[in-house]
Design goal:
The chain is built from 11 helices and 10 strands. The protein is an alpha/beta fold.
């Protein structure tokens, strides 16, 4: 099967490409200036951008399937950029695939499109309702999910997957937020934590998501939608594992939400002046106020999807950080 992949240069995208390349012919849509290095032999490249509709027909020509994983995952970016890439980008890819007569398409959404779960465990049946948006990423991923469901209802050969909170080895992009957080803990850059310890998050190893995406593409069910998650654990359990496996000293101080939001607003303003990425923002504080707990039971039953326990995945991640020299001088545990 010849597959056009968007978003193949990102944290998850590179893992998906590695999985697909063993059995399929791949063409990657890459923007000008994006890296074309460290990809499997035989991968083709097509210059283009999901936000540029005119660049897509040549890229999709001759392909049997499209995997749309491109998204803007940034802490700070203009509101219109999120709309242009996350919402209009999906519409553009859908239009190009329809015109080309592509028979299979999978869109990589996000757990955040399904919404906070607060006291519950949700799955792909959750409706993408309007709510008080935490940030533009949540807003645009939810709107794109709504558009994807409408396309499915209209007969598009489209499947959707919803990865949980992804972590693991790979590109240190802003999307690799969990590993960046682990490094902050290891190097003692966090004076305190945010979020109540009993909050539950669903963590999933990046390789497991990549395999799940491939399963969704290779075993298509008309209109199939699947959560691709991992283990749901409390925040205090997560930090306990990081402390034990990475040798990090976990701060005992927890900042009240109001203080954390004020500090985040100050950091965000300062980062905006300096053109840097803030460590804390008000919307990050808001994310930590919620549960993000999801079930992958449908993907497990219908696709044969499997995920590894968090302790196993974190151990592999820490080993990779050590091998690549990113751990540096560790702060002793205690």
């Amino acid at each position: 099967m010849k597959i056009l992949v968007t978003g193949g240069t990102g944290f998850l995208g590179r893992r998906i490409v590695s999985e697909l390349a063993t059995s399929h012919s791949l063409r990657l849509l890459v923007r000008r200036g994006s890296s074309r290095e460290r990809f499997p032999a035989g991968v083709e490249f097509a210059a283009g951008d999901v936000a540029d509709r005119a660049s897509l027909p040549p890229a999709v020509a001759g392909c049997d399937a499209v995997l749309h994983a491109a998204a803007l995952v940034k802490i700070m970016a203009p509101r219109e950029e999120f709309d242009r890439i996350n919402v209009a980008g999906l519409a553009n890819v859908l239009a190009a695939a329809e015109t080309a007569g592509v028979e299979r398409m999978v869109y990589v959404s996000s757990f955040i499109a399904l919404g906070p779960t607060d006291g519950r465990t949700l799955d792909e049946s959750a409706e993408p309702r309007d709510r008080a948006w935490i940030n533009d990423y949540e807003r645009t991923k939810t709107l794109a999910d709504r558009a994807a469901r409408q396309a499915i209802a209209a007969g598009a050969p489209l499947g959707v997957v919803y990865p949980g909170v992804i972590y693991g080895p790979g590109e240190m992009t802003e999307g690799n937020i969990v590993v960046r957080h682990i490094l902050d803990l290891v190097h003692g850059r966090l004076p305190g934590l945010i979020g109540r310890p009993e909050r539950r998050w669903n963590y999933v190893y990046v390789d497991d998501v990549a395999r799940g995406v491939v399963l969704a593409l290779e075993k298509p069910a008309p209109g199939g939608r699947y959560v691709l998650g991992g283990e749901t654990v409390r925040l205090d359990e997560f930090y306990g594992l990081v402390g034990r496996l990475a040798g990090a000293r976990i701060p005992s101080l927890r900042f009240p939400d109001a203080i954390a939001k004020a500090a985040g607003a100050a950091q965000k303003a300062w980062a905006g002046l300096r053109g840097t990425t803030p460590q804390l923002t008000p919307d990050l504080v808001e994310i930590y106020k919620h549960d993000w707990a999801y079930s992958s039971a449908k993907a497990e039953a219908e696709l044969g999807y499997r995920w590894r326990p968090l302790a196993e995945g974190l151990a592999s991640t820490v080993a990779w950080l050590k091998e690549t020299g990113q751990m540096g001088r560790q702060v002793s545990g205690g």
